[in-house]
Structures are given as structure tokens and as C-alpha cells.
Amino acid sequence: MQVAETIEALRAWRAAVSGVVGFVPTMGALHDGHLSLVRRARRECERVAVSIFVNPAQFGPLEDFQSYPRDLSRDLNLLGAEGVDLVFVPAQSAIYPEGFVTWVTVERLAKRWEGASRPGHFRGVATVVLKLLNLVRPERAYFGEKDYQQLRVVERLVRDLGVPTAIVPCPTVREPDGLALSSRNAYFSPEERRAATVLWRALAAALDECVKGERSTARLCRVVKSVIGEEPLARLDYVAVADPETLEPVKQIDQRGAVCCLAAWVGKVRLIDNVRLEPVPSKGEERA
Ligand code: AMP
User: Fold this and answer.
1) Residues 75, 101: Cα–Cα separation, whole Å
2) 173 CA distance to ligand 1 centroid (A)?
3) Per-residue pLDDT tens digits for 11-52
4) Model pTM greater than 0.90?
5) Ligand 1 within 6 A of 173 CB?
6) Which residue in 23, 39, 228, 274 has a CA-CA distance of 20 to 30 Å to 75?
7) CA distance 255 to 238
8) Is the CB–ligand 1 distance for residue 34 below 6 Å?
């Protein structure tokens, strides 16, 4: 496995390889969620490249950029064991050279939910993703559905700007108790770790109501709020039931289905999660 720390080293690797290149961008502190993307890329591509870059531009001034977990030697060991070909570990000055002023903004899709709670977040994400895709030039790039809005933003960016990379969505990997794997789970005390299961319990309760025939998204949101409200260590930031493509809020679950997205604080840690609400026909409804 080659580790490239500079753009020149990455370009040299890219020029020398042939066949389908699969790419997994990450911020490191790797867990099985990341590795599920790497394994999928390994199955589908001749070469696999992974980047590790904690992107300052996607963190707000009061967020956890400085304290974000970093453990490069552990990450490299994990990626070596997965048969990754190249790990790109750029310095901040390689991604944001002195005088950097060019930013990518994806409108509309990036406005609500995470975009509203974290101003500038998707501008940072879109800019770094486009830069990494331009540098690695992969045929395929793998993104987790855990960051649902990010996935939609990246798909839109690639379509709008003609980037010749197929974006491959990958399902969320969870702990046995439902908590979505996240590098930020490393921050939790045992008590907070237990409380953090409330995100999935709330989403699962909404899904359950939907499966039983509930179509009103206001009522589904109320279910989520009441489950989160029962956990004293948790505080809901937002819950939304939205169109799975446009991420605009919907009033009723129809045949298109919807996605229920939420963000919540558990102690000082902010987590996000989501679940797809598929249109299972309820009593009296016909299957399309
Ligand atoms: P991050 O390091 O948080 O920027 O995540 C890198 C990639 O891994 C993104 O595409 C995430 O959506 C994906 N990812 C993070 N957590 C999970 C998870 N639990 N299951 C699947 N993919 C994930």
C-alpha cells in the first residue's frame, strides 16, 4: 500500500495505474462504516484509493475541528489489511494553498437541515469533494447513506459540473443496538454512549408507525420528538421528513417514499442519523 502525502505523489500513482479506480474519501478515525465502503470498492474496482483529510472548511468556528479524533497509524494498518492500493493524506496547504478563494456552493439541496444548522458546512464539503475527485479522477466514489444530505449534495455536484465519476451510495453500518457508527462516538462516556441509542430508537419508532400505516409526517415527527424527549442526556436539533431526492419537506408519505433525518446532541456531541420511510400500503390502499 502506497501512502501519498503530496499532490505530485498522488498524480504519479494515478498516471501509472490502469483499470477502474474506486475512491473512498474520509476524515480518518476509521471504523467499520468506513471499511464497508472500502470493501465495496475493493469488490467493484481494480484499484482502491482512500483519502484521509480532516477538512477544516466543513467545520464551523465553534465546532470540533481541533479535537476531531485522529489516529493515522491505526488507520493505515486498517486500510493495509483491506488491500487498499493508495492512501492520500494531504497537508492542509495542499488542499487549500495560500490565496485559496475558489468555493463550490450547491444551492437548494444544501440549504435545509444540516445546511441550516451548520452554515458553510456543505460549501466546505462540496469544495473538498470536487477537489479530491479532480485529483484522484476515480471511475467510482463511495459515500455513506449515514450522511444522507451530503450524499445527495455530492450526487448533484457531480451531475451539475460534469464530473466523470459514478457516485455509489452505501448503507449505514450500525452497532448491534442500532447506533450508527461514527468517529464522534469515540467522545462518549459510557452513560452518553447508552443514551446515544435514542437516535435510532426514535427513527425506528417513526418507521414502525409508518409501516403500520401512518402517512402524516407531522405525526411521525411528533413520535421522534417524544422518544428523544424521554432521554435526559439528549437534545433534538431538528427532525425532518423529506422527499428522498430533493430533501424538501413533505406533508404525507406517498409512493415516492421519504427520508426521516434528524440531528441531536448527546452531551456535547452532535450526531446525525436517518431512515428511509418506504410506502408500505396501509389498509384500504392499493399497491401501485
Ligand atoms: P467521514 O470520515 O465522517 O467524513 O465519513 C467518510 C465516509 O464514510 C462518508 O461517505 C460517510 O457517509 C461514510 N460513513 C460514515 N459513517 C458511516 C456508517 N456508519 N455507515 C456507512 N458509511 C458511513
Assistant:
1) 31
2) 9
3) 999 999 999 999 999 999 999 999 999 999 999 999 999 999
4) yes
5) yes
6) 274
7) 24
8) yes
